[in-house]
């Protein structure tokens, strides 16, 4: 009965995704920074007397930054990075020397 036991997958701690709380917190901070920049653009476009090309640049920032901020806030965290170790071959039958235990 060779091969009746499936070998467990080996996972490294660095492969784990960040927690949901950390991911949400990161997206909230990013959203607030973008909306803060939008507010500054809106104030500069309305209050500060600037030439029209600069004023149009600030108006564009005030119009398009909310869209960019919402898209970024709704984006989930990045996928887990690929493993950095070499996986053993699937048909390996011998326990490696560094994994052997006394009495086995």
Overview of this structure, please?
By secondary structure, this protein is mainly alpha-helical. The protein has two helices and no strands.
Secondary structure topology:
Elements: H1 20-46, H2 52-74
Helix pairs in contact: 1-2
Brief summary:
Pfam families: DUF3099 (PF11298). The chain is built from 2 helices and no strands. The chain has a domain at 20-73.
Q: What distinguishing features does this structure have?
A:
about 100 residues; mainly alpha; 2 helices; about 50% helix; about 0% strand; DUF3099; transmembrane; membrane
Radius of gyration over alpha carbons? 26 Å
Along the chain, the helix and strand elements come as: HH
Query: Can you give the helix content as a percent range?
Result: 40-55%
What portion of the residues fall into strands of 2 or more residues? under 5%
Helical segment count: 2
Average pLDDT across residues? 78
Kindly name the structural category: mainly alpha
Biggest beta sheet summary:
none
Q: Spans with pLDDT under 50 lasting ≥5 residues? A: none
Based on Cα principal axes, name the global outline. rod-shaped
End-to-end CA span: 20 Å
DSSP strand count: 0
Region (Disordered): 78-104
Protein name: DUF3099 domain-containing protein
InterPro entries: DUF3099
Pfam family, one: DUF3099
């Amino acid at each position: 009965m060779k091969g009746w036991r499936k070998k467990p997958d080996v996972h490294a701690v660095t492969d784990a995704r960040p927690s949901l709380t950390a991911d949400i917190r990161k997206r909230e901070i990013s959203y607030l920074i973008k909306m803060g920049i939008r507010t500054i653009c809106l104030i500069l476009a309305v209050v500060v007397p600037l030439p029209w090309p600069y004023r149009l640049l600030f108006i564009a920032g005030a119009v398009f930054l909310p869209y960019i901020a919402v898209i970024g806030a709704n984006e989930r965290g990045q996928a887990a990075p690929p493993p950095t170790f070499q996986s053993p071959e699937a048909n390996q039958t011998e326990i490696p020397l560094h994994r052997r235990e006394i009495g086995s």
